[in-house]
Design a protein that fits this description.
Largest interface: A-B, 48 and 57 residues
Number of strands of chain B: 2
Helix content of chain A: over 70%
Order of helices and strands of chain A: HEEHHHHHHHHHHHHHHHHHHHHHHH
Strand order of the largest sheet of chain B: 1-2
Strand content of chain A: under 5%
Oligomer: heterodimer
Distance between the termini of chain A: 81 Å
Strand content of chain B: under 5%
Distance between the termini of chain B: 49 Å
Largest sheet of chain A: 2 strands, antiparallel
Structural class of chain B: mainly alpha
Order of helices and strands of chain B: HHEEHHHHHHHHHHHHHHHHHH
Structural class of chain A: mainly alpha
Shape of chain B: globular
Number of helices of chain A: 24
Helix content of chain B: over 70%
Largest sheet of chain B: 2 strands, antiparallel
Chain lengths: 628, 517
C-alpha cells in the first residue's frame, strides 16, 4: 500500500503529459475534466498511502521508496525517491484535496478562455512539482519541486502575457525567488559537505552531531530560501504582484500550497533548527511576526479585492514562521492547513465576485453583493470569521496555538502577534462590509450601464461550499483539550516530536490568552463595523500604507537607478576598456608593422645578421641558465 | 580482418576524415547541382556519424578511464610527432555532441543558406570544421592535437567573414587574430614541454609521464611548469573564452551566420575547456594547482561579469553570446576546483551548454529569419505570432537558467558545489568565496534570461510586425531541433547517462590532484 506513493505525483504528471499532446484537441471542457480527474486521483492515492501509514506505529510510520539513482559522481550520490511519513502525506493530502477543488472551480472560471487547455497543463504540472517538493526523499528532489513550482508560478502569473504588467509580475516572482534559492543551494552545499548526504533520513539522523555554528548557517540559509518562496521580509514583494494571474492560481499557488513550501521545509529540517544557536529560531520568529504586522498594515488600505487577500496571505505566513521560530511546528502545520482552507475559500470567493462583477476588482465599486450572490457571500463570511479568529471557526484554534507558543517564547512576540490578529480582523471585516454589505456602487458616472452582478455556476460554488465546511470544522484536527484531542500533534509526533516545544503554561493562563485573542478579534470587527458598515467614523487609510510603505517602489527605484547603472557600466567597461585594449593592441601592431616593414629590405646579409644576433642571444641566455 | 578489428584500427580515423573526404567530393560536384551537393554533404556527415556510433557502441564503458581504439603510427619522424588517436570517457560525450550537431546544422540550413548563398563552399567549410573538431577530441599527440585545433580556425574565419552580418570583416579578423595569438603561445608551450619531458615524444601520455618523473626526481623547476601552463592557458583560455579574453566572442557570434553561431557555441568553445582538462591538467598537474586559484577567480568574474553584460544588451544574439561567457565560467570553476566532482560537472556543463546555447542560437537565427532583426526592443509577442517557436524558446531559456530536471542544472549546480571542497592543495576559504559568488550568478541568469523572454515572447507584436504573417516552426527546424530538445530533457532527468561515462577517467585525474599538497 505504501509503495503506491509514486502514484501520487505520477498521476498529475501523466495528466500534464497527456494534455501537452492532446490538450488542444480535447479542448474545453475535456482538458479541464482530465486535469481535475488526475488531481483527484492523486488525492485518492494520497489517502490510500495515509491509510497505510496509520496502520504502522511509531518509528515504522515512514516509508522510503527509491525510484532510480539520479546522479553518482565522485562520491556524490543522489537518488530520486519518495519519503512517505506523516508530514509529507499530510501535505500531499491537502495539496491534492484543495487542488482538486480548485481544478474543478477553474473549469468554470476559465470558461471561454482561448488558452483553456494550456491553463490546465500548467496546473497539473504545478501539482506534480508541488508533490515532488513535499514527497522528495532528499533535499535535491525537494529542490527540483521547489524550482518546478517556481517555474509554474511564473508561467501562471504571466498567463495573460499580452499585458506587460502580468509578464513583469511573473518575472519578478521568479527572480525574487531565485534570491531565496541561492540560500537553499548554499544550504545544500553546506549540508552535503558536513553530513556527506542530502537524504533527509541521513541528514536528520545526524543533525544532533552537527556543530551548532554549521547548523545555524544551514538553518538560516534554508530560511532565506523559505523567505523567498513563502514571501517573508525582505523578499515578499513578488506575492502582491503575483495576483496578476487568474484567481484560481492565486488561490491554489499563492495562498494554499506553494507559498507554504517554506513552512514545510523548515518543519522538515526541524532537528537542524533545534541544533542551532538559540538566536537562530528567534530570528525566524521575529522575521515572521514583523512580516505579519507589516503586511497587515498594508492590507488595511488596499482597494483591490485580491490585493487585500494577497497581503493577508503574507501576514498569515508570517504567523506560521512565528510558530516555527517558537518551536511550535505542529501549530505551524495546523495553521498552514486551516489557512489553506479559509484562504483558498476567500480567494475563490473573490474570484466568484470578480466573475460575477464582470472582471471588476475594485472594492470601491462593489457593495451589497449578498443580495445578488448569496452562496458566495455566505461562504465568504465563513472564511472571514475563520481568518478573523472567531471561535469555533478553524482559524481561531490554529492562531491560538501559535500565540500561546509565542507567549512562552517571548511575550513581546505574543504582543505583536496579538496586534496583528486585531488588524487582521479589522481589514477582513472592512473587505466583507465593502463587498457584500452597504450600498450598491457599481453604477457610477464613469460606468452608467454596468451590468448587474450574478451568482456563479455550480462548478464554482460547490468548491466554495466544501471549503466553507472545512474552514468551519478543521479546528477539530487539533483541539487543545488535553492530549486526546491533539490529533495532529500525535500524528506528526514521529517527525517533529523531538524538536517540538512543549507548552508549560497552566490551563487558566491558556484560557486567559485565548480570551484576549478573541477580544482582540472582536475589537477589530467592531471598529470595522463602525467605519465601513455604519459609516459613523472616517476611514483611516494613509496613502503610505496603500503604497505598501513604498517598499516595493524603493526597490524598483534602486534596480532602475543604481542597478541599471551597474550593468550599463559593465557594458561600457567591456566595450571601452577591455575591448579597447584589444583594439589598441591591434592598432599598435599595425602601426609598428608599418615601421618594421623597413627592416624587410630584401638584403640577405641583413637577415643573416639578424639571425646570427638572435642565435647568439638565445645561446647566451640558455648557457647562463644551465647548471652543470 | 573481422569487423571489430577493422573498427578498432580504422574507426576513429574514418570518423574524423570522412567529413574531409566529403569536402573533397563536394569540390568536384558542379556548383549548379545544389541538391546533389547538399545530399553529399549530409551523407558525409551522416557516414562519419554512423562510424562514430559504431565506435561508441563498441566502446567499453566499464573501463572508460582507459584509452580505447588507440592507433599509433609514425607521422612526422623528424620532430617525433606521431599519429596517435584514441578515446576515453572524457572524449566520448564531446564526440557524440559533435557528431550530432554537424548534420543538424546542415538540415537546418537546407533551404536557408545565408547570403551570399553558395551552399557548396559553405558545406565544404562545415565538413572541414567537423574534421577539425572530431580530430581535436581524438588526438593523443600534441602536434596532432595542435593541427586539428588550428584546422578549425580557417573555416570558421571564412564562415563569419563571407556569410556574416554587416560587420563581418572586423569580427572575423578579430576572431582569427585573437585565437591565433593564443595558439602561438600555446605551441611555444607545447615545444617547451617536449624538451622538458625528455624530447623524444609528443604523445600526451609520454609527456605526462616525463613531467611526473622529473617532478618525482625533483629536478624540474616549478616556475618552468607554471610558465608552460601559462602558454596553454592563453591558448585554451581565449578559446573558452575566459574573462578578460572574451571580447572576440560577442562580435563573432553576432556577425556569424546561424550555422556558424551554433557550431561555435555548441562545439568550438568546448575545444578550450576540453584542452584544459586533456592537455593542461593532465600533463602539468602541479602547475595546475598553482594556476587554479587564478582560473577560479577569472571564472567567477566571468559568471558575474557575463551576466551583468547580458542585462545591458539590446541584441538578442549578442545577449546569448554574453551568456556563454557566464556559462563557461561555471565550467571553468568546476575545472579549477581540481576535484573529480568538479571536473565531471565541467564536462557535463560543456555538453549541456552545447545543447542549450546551440538551441538558443538556432532560435535566434529563426527569429532573425522571420523578423529580419534581433533588436530586442523591436521584438515582442512571439507567442502570439508563432506560439510553437515561442514555447521552444521558453523551454530553452528555462534550461539555460538551470532549472532542475533539465540539462543545464547538472552543469551548474555540481560545479558550484565542487568549489565548496576543492582539491586539498587549494585554499578552501578562497574557493568557498567563489562558490558563494558563483551561486549568486544563478540569480542574475534568471534575471537576464527572463527579461529576454518577456521582451521577445510575451507582450504583443510591435506595430511594424503587427500585420506581418509570421511562419511558425518549419519542418527542417523540427528535424534539427527535436533531438536537441529531447536530449536537454533526457539528460536533465537522467544525468547519469553522461556522468557514468566521464566519471572513471576523471576519478583517476581527481585522485592525482587529491594526492598533491
Amino acid at each position: 500500500m505504501l509503495d503506491l506513493v509514486w502514484l501520487v505525483p505520477a498521476l498529475p504528471l501523466a495528466g500534464f503529459l497527456i494534455l501537452v499532446v492532446l490538450g488542444r484537441r480535447m479542448g474545453e471542457p475535456g482538458a479541464g475534466w482530465l486535469a481535475t480527474a488526475m488531481c483527484g486521483g492523486a488525492f485518492v492515492a494520497s489517502a490510500i498511502v495515509m491509510a497505510g501509514l496509520i496502520g504502522e506505529q511509531g518509528e515504522n510510520r515512514r516509508h522510503l521508496l527509491t525510484l532510480f539513482e539520479w546522479m553518482k559522481v565522485g562520491g556524490f550520490r543522489v537518488e530520486v525517491g519518495f519519503l512517505a511519513d506523516p508530514l509529507s502525506i499530510t501535505m500531499a493530502l491537502f495539496i491534492t484535496g484543495i487542488g482538486t477543488l480548485i481544478h474543478l472551480y477553474s473549469i468554470s472560471y476559465m470558461h471561454g478562455d482561448p488558452k483553456f487547455s494550456k491553463f490546465f497543463i500548467y496546473m497539473n504540472l504545478f501539482v506534480f512539482s508541488m508533490l515532488m517538493l513535499v514527497l522528495g526523499s532528499n533535499m535535491l528532489v525537494t529542490f527540483l519541486g521547489w524550482e518546478g513550482v517556481g517555474a509554474c508560478s511564473y508561467l501562471l502569473i504571466a498567463f495573460w502575457f499580452s499585458k506587460d504588467a502580468n509578464a513583469s509580475a511573473g518575472k519578478k516572482a521568479f527572480v525574487t525567488n531565485r534570491i531565496g534559492d541561492w540560500g537553499f543551494m548554499c544550504a545544500m552545499f553546506l549540508t552535503f559537505a558536513t553530513v556527506g548526504s542530502l537524504d533527509y533520513s541521513v541528514v536528520l539522523e545526524q543533525a544532533p552531531l552537527i556543530a551548532p555554528a554549521t547548523a545555524t548557517a544551514i538553518a538560516l540559509l534554508l530560511f532565506l530560501g523559505a523567505c523567498g518562496k513563502s514571501a517573508q521580509l525582505p523578499l515578499f514583494v513578488w506575492l502582491p504582484d503575483a495576483m496578476a494571474g487568474p484567481t484560481p492560481v492565486s488561490a491554489l499557488i499563492h495562498a494554499a500550497t506553494m507559498v507554504t513550501a517554506g513552512v514545510y521545509l523548515m518543519t522538515r529540517v526541524s532537528p537542524i533548527l533545534t541544533q542551532s544557536y538559540d538566536w537562530a529560531p528567534s530570528i525566524i520568529a521575529w522575521v515572521g511576526v514583523i512580516t505579519a504586522l507589516f503586511a497587515a498594515t498594508i492590507a488595511l488600505a488596499q482597494t483591490d479585492i485580491k490585493k487585500v487577500l494577497a497581503y493577508s496571505t503574507v501576514s498569515q505566513l508570517g504567523f506560521m514562521f512565528l510558530a516555527i521560530g517558537s518551536g511550535a511546528y505542529v501549530a505551524a502545520i495546523f495553521h498552514m492547513i486551516t489557512h489553506a482552507f479559509f484562504k483558498a475559500l476567500l480567494f475563490l470567493g473573490a474570484g466568484s465576485v470578480i466573475h460575477g462583477m464582470h472582471d471588476e476588482q475594485d472594492m470601491r465599486r462593489m457593495g451589497n453583493l449578498k443580495k445578488y450572490m448569496p452562496i458566495t457571500a455566505a461562504t465568504f463570511i465563513v472564511g472571514w470569521l475563520a481568518i478573523a479568529g472567531v471561535p469555533p471557526f478553524a482559524g481561531f484554534w490554529s492562531k491560538d496555538e501559535i500565540l500561546l507558543s509565542a507567549y512562552e517564547k517571548n511575550p513581546a512576540l505574543w504582543f505583536v502577534g496579538l496586534v496583528t490578529a486585531l488588524l487582521t480582523a479589522f481589514y477582513m471585516s472592512r473587505q466583507v462590509f465593502m463587498v457584500f454589505f452597504g450600498e450598491e456602487r457599481w453604477r457610477d458616472a464613469d460606468h452608467p450601464d454596468a451590468p448587474e452582478p450574478h451568482e456563479s455556476p455550480w462548478k464554482m460554488t460547490l468548491p466554495l461550499v466544501v471549503l466553507a465546511g472545512l474552514a468551519t470544522m478543521a479546528g477539530i484536527l487539533n483541539l487543545p483539550f488535553g492530549n486526546r484531542t491533539h490529533f495532529l500533534e500525535r500524528w506528526l509526533e514521529p517527525v517533529v516530536g523531538e524538536s517540538e516545544h512543549t507548552v508549560t503554561a497552566a490551563a487558566s493562563a491558556q484560557i486567559g490568552l485565548a480570551a484576549l485573542a478573541v477580544a482582540g478579534s472582536l475589537v477589530g470587527i467592531a471598529v470595522a463595523y463602525r467605519i465601513y458598515y455604519q459609516r459613523k467614523m472616517e476611514p483611516v487609510e494613509p496613502a503610505i500604507m496603500a503604497q505598501g510603505w513604498k517598499y516595493d517602489t524603493s526597490i524598483a527605484a534602486f534596480m532602475g537607478g543604481p542597478g541599471r547603472e551597474a550593468f550599463e557600466a559593465t557594458a561600457t567597461f567591456d566595450g571601452t576598456v577591455i575591448d579597447g585594449a584589444v583594439n589598441g593592441v591591434a592598432t599598435l601592431v599595425r602601426g609598428s608593422g608599418v615601421h618594421l616593414r623597413k627592416v624587410q629590405n630584401g638584403f640577405v646579409r641583413t637577415y643573416a645578421l639578424g639571425v646570427a644576433v638572435g642565435v647568439v642571444a638565445l645561446l647566451a641566455y640558455f648557457l647562463s641558465r644551465v647548471t652543470f | 580482418m573481422d569487423n571489430n578489428e577493422f573498427l578498432t584500427e580504422w574507426g576513429l580515423t574514418l570518423m574524423v576524415f570522412l567529413p574531409l573526404a566529403g569536402a573533397l567530393l563536394l569540390m568536384v560536384i558542379p556548383k549548379a547541382q545544389e541538391q546533389m551537393i547538399k545530399v553529399a554533404a549530409l551523407g558525409a556527415a551522416l557516414a562519419s556519424g554512423a562510424v562514430g556510433v559504431a565506435v561508441l557502441a563498441n566502446f567499453n564503458y566499464d573501463s572508460s578511464e582507459k584509452l580505447q581504439f588507440v592507433v599509433n603510427r609514425n607521422w612526422i619522424e623528424a620532430i617525433h610527432a606521431n599519429y596517435i588517436v584514441g578515446i576515453d570517457g572524457l572524449s566520448v560525450p564531446l564526440i557524440a555532441l559533435t557528431l550530432l550537431i554537424t548534420p543538424l546544422v546542415m538540415v537546418y540550413s537546407w533551404n536557408h543558406f545565408p547570403q551570399p548563398h553558395n551552399p557548396q563552399a559553405f558545406l565544404i567549410l562545415m565538413l572541414v570544421l567537423a574534421t577539425g573538431m572530431l580530430g581535436t577530441f581524438v588526438a593523443q599527440d600534441l602536434i596532432l592535437f595542435f593541427v586539428f585545433f588550428e584546422v578549425v580556425l580557417l573555416p570558421m574565419y571564412f564562415m563569419i567573414g563571407v556569410w556574416g552580418g554587416e560587420q563581418r570583416q572586423y569580427a572575423s579578423i578579430k576572431f582569427f587574430l585573437y585565437t591565433l595569438f593564443g595558439s602561438a603561445l600555446m605551441i611555444v608551450s607545447f615545444l617547451a614541454l617536449f624538451f622538458v619531458a625528455g624530447g623524444d615524444s609528443f604523445s600526451m601520455v609520454d609527456l605526462a609521464q616525463g613531467v611526473a618523473d622529473r617532478n618525482a626526481a625533483g629536478n624540474l623547476a616549478m616556475i618552468t611548469q607554471v610558465l608552460i601552463f601559462g602558454g596553454m592557458f592563453m591558448g585554451f583560455g581565449i578559446k573558452v573564452p575566459m574573462f578578460p579574453f572574451h571580447t572576440w566572442l560577442p562580435d563573432a557570434h553576432t556577425q556569424a551566420p546561424t550555422a556558424g553561431s551554433v557550431i561555435l557555441a555548441a562545439v568550438l568553445l568546448k575545444l578550450g575547456t576540453y584542452g584544459f582538462i586533456r592537455v593542461a591538467l593532465f600533463i602539468l598537474p602541479e602547475a595546475a594547482v598553482k594556476w587554479a586559484p587564478y582560473i577560479g577567480a577569472l571564472a567567477v568574474i566571468g559568471i558575474i561579469y557575463g551576466a551583468l553584460g547580458c542585462l545591458a544588451q539590446t541584441d538578442m544574439k549578442r545577449l546569448i553570446a554574453f551568456s556563454s561567457v557566464a556559462h563557461m565560467g561555471f565550467v571553468m570553476l568546476g575545472i579549477a576546483s581540481l576535484t573529480t566532482f568538479g571536473l565531471n560537472a565541467a564536462v557535463f556543463g560543456m555538453v549541456a551548454h552545447g545543447l542549450i546555447t546551440g538551441m538558443l542560437f538556432f532560435l535566434a537565427g529563426s527569429v532573425k529569419d522571420r523578423f529580419h532583426t534581433l533588436e530586442i526592443k523591436r521584438l515582442g509577442g512571439l507567442l502570439l505570432q508563432a506560439p510553437k517557436l515561442g514555447w521552444i524558446l521558453g523551454f530553452c531559456i528555462m534550461a539555460s537558467l538551470g532549472l532542475p530536471g533539465l540539462a543545464g542544472f547538472w552543469g551548474e549546480f555540481p560545479a558550484i558545489l565542487s568549489a565548496y571542497n576543492p582539491a586539498p592543495a587549494l585554499s578552501q576559504e578562497l574557493f568557498r568565496t567563489y562558490m558563494v559568488i558563483a551561486a549568486f550568478g544563478t540569480v542574475l541568469a534568471a534575471g537576464y534570461l527572463l527579461w529576454l523572454f518577456q521582451r521577445t515572447a510575451f507582450g504583443t507584436p510591435s506595430e511594424e510586425f503587427a500585420d506581418v504573417e509570421i511562419e511558425d516552426v518549419r519542418v527542417s527546424e523540427w528535424i534539427a531541433w527535436v533531438p536537441l530538445l529531447a536530449l536537454i530533457l533526457v539528460l536533465g532527468v537522467f544525468p547519469n547517462i553522461i556522468f557514468h561515462v566521464t566519471d572513471p577517467f576523471l576519478t583517476v585525474m581527481g585522485n592525482t590532484f587529491a594526492g598533491l599538497k
